[in-house]
Amino acid sequence: MKIAILTSGGDSSGMNVAIKRFVEYSYEKNFTPYFIYDGLEGLIDGKIKKANYKDVRGIICRGGTIIRSSRSKRWFDKEYRKKAYENLKKQSIDALIILGGDGSFRALNVFYKEFKIPFIGIPATIDNDIALNEYSIGVDTALNVIRSAIDDIRDTASSFSRAFVIETMGRECGYLALISAISNGAEMCLIPEMSYNLDRLKEKYLKEIKNGRNYFLAIVAEGVKKTEFIKEWFEREIGFESRITILGHIQRGGAPTTIERLRAVEFMSLALDNIENNPNKIVTFCDDKFILRNLEEIINSKYSLPKKALEIAKPLMGLDG
Amino acid sequence: MKIAILTSGGDSSGMNVAIKRFVEYSYEKNFTPYFIYDGLEGLIDGKIKKANYKDVRGIICRGGTIIRSSRSKRWFDKEYRKKAYENLKKQSIDALIILGGDGSFRALNVFYKEFKIPFIGIPATIDNDIALNEYSIGVDTALNVIRSAIDDIRDTASSFSRAFVIETMGRECGYLALISAISNGAEMCLIPEMSYNLDRLKEKYLKEIKNGRNYFLAIVAEGVKKTEFIKEWFEREIGFESRITILGHIQRGGAPTTIERLRAVEFMSLALDNIENNPNKIVTFCDDKFILRNLEEIINSKYSLPKKALEIAKPLMGLDG
Amino acid sequence: MKIAILTSGGDSSGMNVAIKRFVEYSYEKNFTPYFIYDGLEGLIDGKIKKANYKDVRGIICRGGTIIRSSRSKRWFDKEYRKKAYENLKKQSIDALIILGGDGSFRALNVFYKEFKIPFIGIPATIDNDIALNEYSIGVDTALNVIRSAIDDIRDTASSFSRAFVIETMGRECGYLALISAISNGAEMCLIPEMSYNLDRLKEKYLKEIKNGRNYFLAIVAEGVKKTEFIKEWFEREIGFESRITILGHIQRGGAPTTIERLRAVEFMSLALDNIENNPNKIVTFCDDKFILRNLEEIINSKYSLPKKALEIAKPLMGLDG
Amino acid sequence: MKIAILTSGGDSSGMNVAIKRFVEYSYEKNFTPYFIYDGLEGLIDGKIKKANYKDVRGIICRGGTIIRSSRSKRWFDKEYRKKAYENLKKQSIDALIILGGDGSFRALNVFYKEFKIPFIGIPATIDNDIALNEYSIGVDTALNVIRSAIDDIRDTASSFSRAFVIETMGRECGYLALISAISNGAEMCLIPEMSYNLDRLKEKYLKEIKNGRNYFLAIVAEGVKKTEFIKEWFEREIGFESRITILGHIQRGGAPTTIERLRAVEFMSLALDNIENNPNKIVTFCDDKFILRNLEEIINSKYSLPKKALEIAKPLMGLDG
């Protein structure tokens, strides 16, 4: 059986670990592994190559994806999907493994319905915004990159009376901001999924300043689009000089953490164990277990942030806990 | 209610996060938090102090334990336990929280039976060797310290034809070695719980060398006491120069990881939520959930390494997978 | 002799190492060391305290400054300087050591002329913008924090065709941006001291893209105020999606590097060796040697970026090398 | 002109930066760059390949050496050197650049005398043991790896009353141990170049313990061969439990620091600027300047540790400062 892998959408740390496992475990199972470079764009353009052990040597500790990724507009046009199909046929590829978010899974689902190329999807996105799935490849590493940055800021924070506003990635999903705020003991957490009450926060902060607090740490998800505003709010309303840190793409990089590596290996093992007899599924992670689900089930469910974490974080939004 | 905390046995990264949560959440719940310094030794000697917010400022990112730890021989002598009891009475302490391994839990269990001081135990040991519990505070950080060291070695490894023997902590328990070997793609993994077959490993390695392998990574748990032997074995039997790295106490230190911090907070929250009405329990972590158990249940069960990991690692011991 | 230390202006990593050396070496020399908290503001307000060994335990590996810092407007008013003088007299402080930039040195120079309190200044600013001085405390650590962030981005960079715009600190001085651009192999470097030619860079980049280049790394100093503009320029003129990372205060933090620690110790040793018989000087570092200079000499000279580095970096500004 | 590069002896972090600069600057100067793989062994065996931009992409942040290294016994036999010469002639290589220690420089010096292949040597060894040269590629990174390990231990150190014995690399040269002991505030420093007086250290330590010291940090260079002995000495004579950390090959790896990268670039630039008209020299670094020297001058001088550092460290050896 010939199986090809592609990475799609935003890259995340740990993709390379999954790619390494894909090659090694494929050979162990007597599959022939192929790489599709540049995501769906590369599939359309036929950038397909047989993969071997050497390709994946030493990549276990590298962020990003060695087979690169893309966002494809052409894919929405059936003509290009047909081209993609013909590229696969030419090389006799039997099935696909895709690493990405649910947009990527939909892309292959449509493709399957049209051309009967079976696939399995593996969640890999630092947004961690896939329904019925608690873990996507890249999340633990991103959280630790943010943590390490905040630890560096903490040392300097107490040197001045200042507010530090840290913008984390997350256009529509505040997962990284939420977990970072809790685990790093931040005073403010703003995420796109939740409202917030600055007046109540102000009241609380002014009280804390009287009790000796001399710095604030605010975590603001990119998608809230309030980073600059919050900086000015601290200066105007709280009377604290304020500084912005926009972590940006650092969050996608960094050496994958231990848990990242373990889970990436397990996600991929399950994908290859099922690609032959149980395809067209998404491997999800729930309650410390891996479960295969139909895409429909995922699409028809709504992604939600972990409730316990939300409860803990509500006071950081000026809301009732 | 007056509650005192102590840390006992080997320290581990994340203890300080739990201590910080202990102080802050105690005040939130209208308990009065106390520190006992130097573990059971300090309890015998009456090193007890009321704790406040200032004591725990900035400790969230520090390894070790600010209230220090000890191993106490005197505790086995009832006379000293009586002294400990009197110290607690003098300060009107109502209950104890202990962070440590199961030896520490037994110590407080005996104490409870004799003097009726209720307690709750929280697993904190990088050995991760407590029955019916999948996670102890310190483990994720230790695993990432080991990973980072191996990543550094990996760069240099391919510069020579060499074998690298890395000794991880773990006197009777190979958990760190086992998970590190799998997540870092090692070629050998020796742990005290399992036998191994060097002849079969030799056969396999010699074959791989023919296919171009030019370095080996061997993870050996401290408790196997074979670190020096394996170094010499590689030189004598495989014909590869070999180098030893003994990571030692680095594994107990380092800034706690994100998961470490989250779990430390959750362990402690549960401990304080139950200390009043449901004491004399150990907070355990299983299947991504926190569960309170009686000490007897834990003592009467046998600790075992995770089966799935063992299966994956058997070939690294020269055993059938 | 009673000597007090203060840190002034922006904090930088390594200040704590110098503070530790200040306390320990003072006692070695039979001086009595004092801390002034909160910089010149604290001097005005009399926040002065005798320092001891315990105060500096464990701070060698922490960024920031444990005695905090400030920027003081009141200092420009003689009335407040008189207050500061009286605070020093009250405690019989004989001399001052100040860590900061040349603004801080001028502040104490005026103070000396008015009240005859001798002082020695030690350069400590991540801007590294003091004339006749090649190294200020904080610089090597800041450079390595930036490097580490860029290394993380590099992994993810090759996963897409993208331009990464990284804003480093430096309001009027491009030192960090300049050295970071060279040592990290960036394609663009914009600093406040130099002009740039985007048309020539565009021409060069388009040629490189034809030859296979698939990502760009642009380092832009904060003071250029073009970070957002450069991002848009890459998208509009080069046709590459572009992302911004604003490192912010991370650059002031982080554990001091080895060189940082060594130099901080040497700066302080020299300051204390000279405070009695050769005061009112600034300790500078030139050609790998420490030299004491009069403030006037420094003020009357012009700070300049290292020539060799500028020559190497000119092509990254679109200028002739 | 065709120029080949090889790395020889122990690898060190920063070699890859020099290799990247070698390729890029060679093309800039219209030289043709070649790689010799596996050091002198590969030269004998003819492992020579033309190098291009792609070979050095992304290696700037990796430890080790992508062209690998070796120690060669065959090289001492003229027959094999003749073979090496013929390999170079076959490919019309005009000159060699070698990265390594002074053993490597001698090897090429003999070769030059016999076969008139000009060369330039660049110091690259974490031992930093080359006479008339203050910096070898790899040293700053190794020092920071050691520092980071000690910082991790420091957190845990104060949790117990313990002595931590850390063995650094350095068979005949104690440079790493010396600088690490000073910059990390260790209590003991043993190096092969110096004697030591344990009785006086014992006396000092016992006094400090009375004054509240509760842990010791001892840095012992590998070449002293006393690591195990010192551990036992602390337990027997000082009455402190003691733990060993042998850092091993971690010290050769890790991402090169900023200074490492800058200096590696400068070393190589000078080598290529002189290979044509001023060859058979070693590039050395002294007083913050790069100087080309004849090998004879280096060989006839004696390597010595920096005097100022030795003076500071003498009390850590129990000697008079």
Task: Give a verbal description of the structure.
The structure is a homotetramer of 321-residue chains. Chain A has 321 residues and is of the alpha/beta class. Chain A folds into two domains: 2-138 and 256-286, Rossmann fold (3-Layer(aba) Sandwich); 139-252 and 308-317, 3-Layer(aba) Sandwich (Rossmann fold), CATH 3.40.50. Chain A has eleven helices and eleven strands. The first copy, chain A, has helices at 15-28, 39-45, 78-90, 102-115, 139-157, 175-183, 198-210, 227-238, 258-274, 295-299, 307-313, and strands spanning 2-7, 32-36, 48-50, 95-100, 119-123, 162-168, 188-190, 215-221, 241-246, 281-286, 289-294. Chain A has a seven-stranded mixed sheet with strand order 3-2-1-4-5-10-11, sandwiched between helices. The first copy, chain A, has a four-stranded parallel sheet with strand order 7-8-6-9, with helices on both faces. In chain A, helix 2 packs across helix 3. The model of chain A has no long low-confidence stretch (mean pLDDT 95).
